[in-house]
Design a protein that fits this description.
Helices cover about 50% and strands about 10% of the residues. The strands form 5 sheets. A 5-stranded antiparallel β-sheet has the order 1-2-3-4-5. Strands 13-12-14-15-16 form a 5-stranded mixed β-sheet. Helix 17 (about 380-395) runs antiparallel to helix 18, helix 19 (about 450-470) packs antiparallel against helix 24 (about 550-580) and helix 24 (about 550-580) runs antiparallel to helix 25. It is an alpha+beta fold. It folds into 4 domains: about 5-90, Zinc finger, CHC2-typedomain (DNA Primase, Chain A, Alpha-Beta Complex); about 100-235, DNA primase DNAg catalytic core, N-terminal domain (Alpha-Beta Complex); about 240-375, Dna Topoisomerase Vi A Subunit, Chain: A, domain 2 (3-Layer(aba) Sandwich), CATH 3.40.1360; about 420-425 and about 450-623, no CATH class.
Length: about 625
């Protein structure tokens, strides 16, 4: 809702900003202002200033700036209306309502808050009573201490049809309010109402300010549902709330970390074990609203879901829902709980150290998506690899931020490049440049592997092939099983080959001009200038921009046939030397095989024989 400007100005005037900030930041007076360590970034020397006269705070280190309302919103994770309501209460001024309907709704919600608080107090009292001893024994048997039970305000609902109803009616609360608050349910035939929670341990669910808005209950005996939550009410929408948020907010901000588990007991057990920055969704998959709530506490919430199949599915659903929300600096991480365990059982069995280890090794969102798309699957055919590439592209396109989307696309392209036969990763790029011009470095191959002329010829062929593929990037698909397996003769050519492949995999429909621009931005501008001039251009007529795709395809095929004929010739020469040194059936067989391969390559119109030869390991030994 909108608040009158006069009311907001009056609220700011009634609450000196230095007094509000001093609750969270140790301030020192310096002249007419106060200074302290900024609560929004880590610093050793104070750069955070607060001015009562001007009514704002400002950090000269990180640029944080705002008034008393903005400070409370940012430090406490409250919405604007929640902040206004909180500050108005502190200033003892009524919050204006803009319409009779809103005034009535606010009054109704205030009344419902009172009803829920009365119910919470009653449930707590029942846990301390004789009938509640069984529930109390259950909680202590799970390792909970009295302080933890009190901190989370745990309670007990007796196994009686209308005990809560009777108690609250005696306090003067109308039955209609109890129904509206979700405390009572009505029989399907329209008959009497009855207590929704019976024979259950009660877990109060609060809003960020700590006000009780709903309950969760765990059955102690036989029940249709082990866990039961309040229905949606004017106070409670389960997809917008996190259990334990009020208790976790301060520790999460202090530690710059928030943990997310699946259930109430997981959250309470971790809080007691020394991880107070823990919350839980309410029996549903993590929603978009809950992810946004988490990001108000920490930029990378850590999800610690159960190690069973259901828990892993929940983690993947959360990852999928986060994709359309991703923005720079904000993501999710995933602590992979061992199969058969949940956070509660793990911390009780192996102690807090096991949880800390899981958090320290939490997987990034980009890894979880990759694992989900590739684990236990085979990509041994071009069709399967193409399917994976398309699927990853569809996933990446869900990310709205262009920078994050671009980096995800490049990351997955690089992984495909490394995983599926596209060799050559891990070569450190060390460009040879002098005054912005390209200088041909000495080749990585030694003269002992062939004559100087053969080395120079191979290097020229590699340059020709690169230029052809830059001019006609869509031919990469035709030659990926050959081109993607090769390691080029110099580090610079190899780096260009690798980046060309990654860019093509990242942008399936990339045009030559855009490809050349991006390669230039990656540090290859001087080499590309070299490729498009001089001897390379002369020998690569089929790589001209105006060459047809058929001309380029045929030219590349001939280049690669000649290139691999030389490779097989090298293998043949080594086989001859091996036979001369050790004449036997094995060396004779190797020699005969290579002779047949050389002849087949000369006659072959496509590259399938070369591809088969390389898959069998040929052309690698001694290179």
């Amino acid at each position: 809702m909108a608040f009158p400007p006069e009311f907001l100005d009056d609220l700011r005037a009634r609450l000196p900003i230095a007094d509000v900030v001093a609750r969270r930041v140790k301030l020192t007076r310096r002249g007419r202002e106060h200074v302290g360590l900024c609560p929004f970034h880590k610093e050793k020397s104070p750069s955070f200033t607060v001015s009562d006269d001007k009514g704002f705070y400002h950090c000269f280190g990180c640029g944080a700036h705002g008034d008393v309302i903005g400070f409370v919103m940012r430090t406490e994770g409250l919405s604007f209306p929640e902040t206004i309501e909180k500050l108005a209460g502190e200033a003892s001024v009524p919050v204006p309502q803009s319409s009779p309907e809103e005034r009535q709704r606010a009054k109704r919600q205030s009344t419902l808050h009172d009803v829920m608080e009365r119910a919470a107090l009653w449930y707590e009292a029942q846990l301390r009573s004789a009938p509640g001893s069984r529930a109390h024994d259950y909680l202590t048997g799970r390792g909970l201490k009295a302080e933890t039970i009190a901190r989370f305000r745990l309670g007990f609902a007796p196994d009686a049809r209308s005990q809560l109803k009777s108690a609250l009616l005696k306090e003067g609360i109308e039955e209609s309010l109890l129904i509206e608050a979700g405390l009572l349910a009505r029989r399907e035939d329209g008959g009497d109402t009855y207590d929704r929670f019976r024979d259950r341990v009660i877990f109060p669910i609060t809003d960020p300010r700590g006000r009780v808005i709903a309950f969760g209950g765990r059955a102690l005996g036989e029940a249709h549902a082990k866990y039961l939550n309040s229905p949606d009410t004017p106070l409670f929408h389960k997809g917008r709330v996190l259990f334990g948020l009020a208790q976790a907010r301060e520790p999460a901000r202090s530690n710059n970390r928030v943990l997310v588990v699946e259930g109430y007991m997981d959250a309470i057990a971790l809080a007691e074990a020394g991880f107070p920055e823990v919350v839980a969704p309410l029996g549903t998959a993590l929603t978009e609203e809950q992810i946004e709530l988490l990001w108000k506490l920490a930029p990378e919430p850590v999800l610690c879901f159960d190690g069973d199949a259901a828990g892993q599915r929940a983690a993947l659903r959360a990852a999928t829902r986060a994709l359309p929300l991703l923005k720079p600096g904000h993501s999710l991480r995933f602590a992979l709980v061992p199969p058969g365990e949940d956070p509660d059982s793990l911390v009780r069995r192996r102690g807090p150290g096991a949880i800390k280890a899981l958090i320290d090794e939490a997987a990034a969102l980009v890894d979880v998506i990759w694992r989900a798309e590739t684990e236990a699957r085979h990509f041994d055919t071009p069709e399967r690899r193409a399917g994976l590439r398309r699927q990853l592209e569809e996933i990446v396109r869900q990310i709205p931020d262009r920078d994050v989307q671009d980096l995800y696309r490049r990351e997955y392209a690089g992984r495909m490049f490394r995983a599926f036969g596209f060799q050559g990763g891990g070569v450190e790029r060390r460009p040879f440049r002098k005054q912005g011009k390209w200088n041909d470095p000495k080749p990585a191959m030694s003269d002992g592997e062939g004559t100087r002329a053969r080395i120079d010829t191979r290097q020229l062929r590699e340059k020709v092939a690169l230029l052809a593929l830059i001019r006609h990037p869509h031919l990469v698909e035709d030659f990926d099983q050959i081109f993607g397996r090769e390691t080029f003769i110099t580090e610079e050519l190899e780096a260009l080959r690798r980046d060309l492949f990654i860019l093509f995999l990242s942008y399936l429909d990339i045009e030559p001009a855009e490809l050349e621009r991006r390669l230039g931005e990656s540090g290859h501008a001087a080499l590309i200038d070299h490729l498009t001039s001089g001897a390379v251009r002369v020998h690569a007529g089929f790589a001209r921009p105006d060459a047809t795709i058929e001309e380029a395809r045929e030219g590349l095929r001939e280049v690669w046939k000649a290139h691999y004929h030389d490779i097989i010739q090298d293998d043949h020469d080594r086989a001859v030397r091996a036979f001369m040194e050790n004449p036997c059936d094995q060396t004779m067989k190797s020699l005969e095989t290579l002779r047949k391969t050389m002849e087949a390559v000369k006659q072959e119109q496509d590259l399938s024989i070369i591809s088969s030869y390389l898959r069998a390991g040929g052309g690698r030994a001694g290179r």
